[in-house]
Design brief:
It is built from nine helices and six strands. It has about 150 residues and is α/β, with parallel strands linked by helices. The chain has a single domain, classed as Roll (CBS-domain). The chain has a three-stranded mixed β-sheet. Strands 4-5-6 form a three-stranded mixed β-sheet. Pfam families: CBS.
């Protein structure tokens, strides 16, 4: 089985997509992450939802969970609104590590190894400088487990 056999049409965002819009898309589609495309329409990185949280949740609450408990519920429920005009670019680390990107001829084991090595639940598939779609961890598990 090859990457092309596991390929799914998968939503993307750009580096300039607002974080609020990104979070809304993840929520509506029940996604744990999104593929981020650069200006050329090629994968720049994978944005896990946890990176969106890291940007939106105040640092003092991340550093000391006890402080998160003292914030009243009305304000605690609105933490995502405080991201203002921040974009996907703001949520990404300055230098992306190895990108979870493969070609359509990669074997299923190559895709699994890439996911494991990059700790990414998504792998973007690119052929001749064209983004084709993604392979999700769920689809990969479905195929290898025979479900």
């Amino acid at each position: 089985m090859r990457a092309r056999d596991l390929l799914t049409d998968f939503p993307t965002v750009t580096l300039d997509t607002p974080i609020r819009e990104t979070a809304r898309l993840m929520a509506e589609l029940h996604l744990a992450g999104l593929i981020v495309l650069n200006e050329d329409g090629l994968p720049h990185s994978v944005l896990p939802g946890t990176q969106v949280l890291a940007l939106a949740v105040p640092g003092y609450c991340q550093d000391d969970p006890a402080l998160a408990r003292v914030v009243d519920e009305a304000h605690a429920d609105r933490f995502l609104h405080d991201v203002g005009d921040r974009t996907v670019r703001d949520a990404l680390p300055p230098q992306p590590k190895e990108l979870p990107v493969t070609d359509p001829d990669a074997t299923i084991l190559e895709v699994a190894a890439l996911m494991a090595r990059t700790r990414s639940p998504l792998v973007a598939v690119v052929d001749q400088d064209r983004y084709l779609g993604a392979i999700t961890l769920t689809v990969l598990f479905d195929r290898v487990s025979g479900a």
